[in-house]
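Support request, priority: normal
Reporter: lab tech (M.K.)
Component: structure prediction queue

Hi team, I submitted a job for 2-C-methyl-D-erythritol 4-phosphate cytidylyltransferase from Streptomyces lunalinharesii yesterday, and the status page still shows it as pending. I've pasted the exact input below so you can check whether something in the sequence is tripping the parser. The sequence length should be 248 residues. Please let me know if I need to resubmit or if it's stuck on your end.
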Amino acid sequence: MSDPSRPVRTAAVIPAAGRGVRLGPGTPKALRTLGGTPMLVHAVRAMAASRAVTHIVVVAPPDGPDEVRRLLDAHPLADRTELTVVPGGTTRQESVRLGLAALPDGIDVVLVHDAARPLVPVETVDAVIAAVRGGAPAVVPALPLADTVKQVEPRPQGTPEPVVGTPERALLRAVQTPQGFDLPTLRKAHEVVVEGEGATDDAGLVERLGEGVVLVPGHEEAFKVTRPLDLVLAEAVLARRRATDGYV
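Reply from support: The job had stalled in the queue. We restarted it manually and it finished. Here are the results:
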């Protein structure tokens, strides 16, 4: 992956350009507050909590990089973590590609993390990094499914949908972020795989290259804040952390 005599450097890219309409109208999802602090700030802190992460690129809404920069400057990180803010694109894949382009030279491992997963524990971040450094080109944290999943024949919303299959739950996992990659592998995936070809995350792009993707254990608290009920749960998790762990 790189010169073995040189320390492996890790960076994180956080795409935060989405509007998050399922969470309701208002400011972009990543800028909604959680415990009085924007979710994006929590997500940035979660990446910076890993001592392996030396640089974070936040990909802001196309019309909002200055606002995001001011927001993050008001919540400074430790000196060991550099922070860059760049404008994003019209799609998530384009935004991640712009974030990768903003990385400094010398980065070997890159994490891609959803801003809407503000409470991922540092142990999960470190486990992903360790697996990439161990030789895996792509690593995803994931959890076993608790619910049975049905495959259906889609119908218009509100219309009963015929069931066409029941996948074996023991073989399925719910994926989370941060997803970790050997940087050249992820860059190649973004260059080669055409948007809309069926990949719904960065690991899916790597899969379409024919490269291997491995899973490491995820964490219950790395859930995605997508709907109002998710925000209620996140507030409860944050309140517990502040009460028991001294979390800021």
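The first strand starts at residue 10 and ends at 15. The chain is about 30% helix and 20% strand. Let us know if anything else looks off. Ticket resolved.
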